Amino acid sequence: MKTIKGPGIFLAQFLGDAPPFDRLETLADWAAGHGYAGVQVPTFNPAVFDVALAAESQDYCDEVAGMLAARGLEITELSVHRQGHLVAVHPLYDDTVDVFVALELRGKPAARRAWAEDQVRAAAKASARLGLGVCVGFPGALLWPYLYPYPPRPPGLVELGFEELARRWRPLLDAFDEAGVDLAFELHPGEDLHDGATFERLLDAVDGHPRLTILYDPSHLHLQHMDYVGFIDRYGERIRAFHVKDAEFVRNERTGTYGGYEGWLERAGRFRSPGDGQIDFTAIFSRLTANDYGGWAVLEWECALKHPEDGAAEGAPFIRDHIIRVTERAFDAPMTAAPDAALNRRVLGLGDA
What we know:
Elements: E1 5-10, H1 24-33, E2 38-42, H2 51-56, H3 58-69, E3 74-80, H4 81-85, H5 94-97, H6 109-129, E4 134-137, H7 157-179, E5 182-186, H8 196-205, E6 212-216, H9 218-222, H10 230-235, E7 239-244, E8 246-249, E9 269-272, H11 281-290, E10 296-299, H12 308-322, H13 341-347
Parallel strand pairs: 1-2, 1-10, 2-3, 3-4, 4-5, 5-6, 6-7, 7-10
Antiparallel strand pairs: 8-9
Helix pairs in contact: 6-7, 7-8
């Protein structure tokens, strides 16, 4: 077994225009001050991390890694959540996702997708230069508008959607394979991969590609009323990253799983700071450890109630307190005799051989 690394923090939710949230150096000071050992770095803002430059420049990667090391930090993973989502966008969402790209790419879906694919390839190379084994992100969505099976979907629609998703991602997965890096998708509503069944569909469509893996986030599974602990047993060999994010589903007479178009505060299902929701993190850390997960435990903060600074301050000790330092021997090892066939026969009353 391996001891989980941590605590780490995903910086994406804390980026801003004012210090310390506008530059990686000052974000690093802030994260280290809260007791974090690792940072998951978003790559959509070149002012924070220039993924295109990192793909080509070992000097830049060494400079970033050295700056973080001087503060007692490591990069846990690079994130291509935004760029990955733009690899596969249903046209219904063209206007709403254009906010993710520069002005010159807006209204140009083909150019936007090409840019996104270049960014994902760059993240594979940059991850390798940084010595990282995993990159995290989203897969995008072509089928999400047809999630609910009414009106009835045309026969073959789902199969074609996953064939196309595989066609777009296979060359990118191959680029990660060339770089020696896994790509871990966060299973997330709004993405075509949002549970185990949809992950299996894409995995089958890319012939079990070894680089297609999972960013495990129990909050999204809990809000779908899934067995998020059992999920670890079923997919443990593919889990390569872990977001520590809590959630709660408050059953009521007015709204349900789909939210009734309400804001986050009014929804039946909403995200919470770790320890404030319903997720059993003691069971999760135990099951991940038993399944030999040795990656990072990374706070992803998206609480509907708590101030982000409080969530960040509480997140590091929460994760640290849940990490299990694995034992090097069984607790009853001192009481166990050496192998002795004759003794075993006597214990069973079988006499001499």
